[in-house]
Design goal:
The protein is α/β, with parallel strands linked by helices. It has a single domain, classed as Roll (2,3-Dihydroxybiphenyl 1,2-Dioxygenase, domain 1), CATH 3.10.180. It is 21% helix and 27% strand. Strand 7 and strand 8 form a beta hairpin.
């Protein structure tokens, strides 16, 4: 059996998908795959993964093409940024009037900053490593 190679899609939920999509395209400069709709917005990331925003009510409706799913409350997504780029991101966010909720330096040497999207989801920008080596990799 082959191993899981990575995360292909990540989803956060927003009642106002279009407003949330504007944050991710205008502020974080993600590349949209299509125009956002009331149901969803999709962005292609540089690592070929896909970042999605769904309306939680519409996405949890039974009978859709894909199985129903959704969440309530604030979600979380973390985006990796290029080494040395976190300070520039912090400056740009502040310039745009976006509050940085928290900044953390991790034991592994990485650093993160956290902001909120218009739907209240926690958005983390990570430079370097925040997590230790997996137990599996440490024993191989």
């Amino acid at each position: 059996m082959s191993r899981v190679a990575g995360v292909y899609e990540t989803v956060v939920y927003a009642v106002d998908v279009v407003a949330a999509a504007r944050f991710y395209s205008d502020v974080l400069e993600l590349s949209p795959l299509e125009e956002p709709t009331e149901l969803s917005a999709a962005f292609r990331l540089d690592d070929r993964g896909v970042f999605l925003i769904f309306d939680p009510v519409r996405a949890s409706a039974v009978g859709r093409r894909v199985p129903a799913h959704g969440a309530t409350g604030a979600g979380h997504v973390a985006f990796a940024v290029e080494e040395g780029g976190l300070e520039a991101w912090a400056g740009e966010l502040r310039r745009r009037g976006i509050d940085i909720e928290r900044e953390i330096t991790w034991e592994e040497g990485g650093r993160s900053l956290y902001v909120r999207d218009p739907a209240g989801n926690s958005v983390e920008l990570v430079e370097g490593e925040a997590w230790p080596v997996s137990l599996r990799d440490a024993t191989d």
